[in-house]
Amino acid sequence: xxxxxxxxxxxxxxxxxxxxxxxxxxxxxxxxxxxxxxxxxxxxxxxxxxxxxxxxxxxxxxxxxxxxxxxxxxxxxxxxxxxxxxxxxxxxxxxxxxxxxxxxxxxxxxxxxxxxxxxxxxxxxxxxxxxxxxxxxxxxxxxxxxxxxxxxxxxxxxxxxxxxxxxxxxxxxxxxxxxxxxxxxxxxxxxxxxxxxxxxxxxxxxxxxxxxxxxxxxxxxxxxxxxxxxxxxxxxx
Length: 237
Ligand code: TMP
Ligand code: ASP
Hints:
The structure is a single chain. The protein has 6 helices and 13 strands. The protein is of the alpha+beta class. The chain folds into 2 domains: 3-82, Phosphorylase Kinase, domain 1 (2-Layer Sandwich), CATH 3.30.200.20; 85-220, 2-Layer Sandwich (D-amino Acid Aminotransferase, Chain A, domain 1). The longest helix has 23 residues, at 145-167. The chain is globular and about 50 Å long. The model has no long low-confidence stretch (mean pLDDT 98). Bound molecules: thymidine-5'-phosphate and aspartic acid.
């Protein structure tokens, strides 16, 4: 597989074409962004840590029967993935109240949500990723009902697999965001799964081990991501 031209530059990753129409190369950069790109910094090692962390998680999800775009690690900062046609909607599963849910509903941070909730957000930085509902997704044609139901089913399945995995490292999976796309007509998990797109708390101390450290200026961001990886057995070197 040969890496070709740059197709797209996101806030933390860049996407390259390859000599094969069905595959892309994703480059994980050190850029770290929050608040829809309003806060951006370079954090040493973050690209490498997220690339390797994501490859580890995607492998676990694939082993559990979830279709994923990840094919293989190519280098410290690059992975080979299937080329998906992305659905412009973010799927968020929450096990505990945090972040925008706390702000929106005035509930206490850390309240356990039984059963877990599922929310949809339109991927649009200029609009601040507004929350949308299933009718919006269907009416605006972002996804069909069948695709939406599959995304929901897979999101909850990811939750079951990862809740257990993080529990093994004495962590709570508070919430997370997934992005899906279509590969030859099938819904496949794309983007990444890393501490950039989820919330993880230490089970005993509730120490934040995810991007909230960056959002809230708590420091030790990449160190926390590496600690999460070490607790799960991810190898970073
Ligand atoms: P929220 O509390 O800000 O709505 O976010 C819920 C979870 O989804 C949290 O783990 C962060 C993640 N997320 C992203 O990674 N990117 C996004 O654009 C959004 C809306 C959420
Ligand atoms: N990843 C998004 C951004 O960079 C949202 C966030 O994590 O706060 O703005």
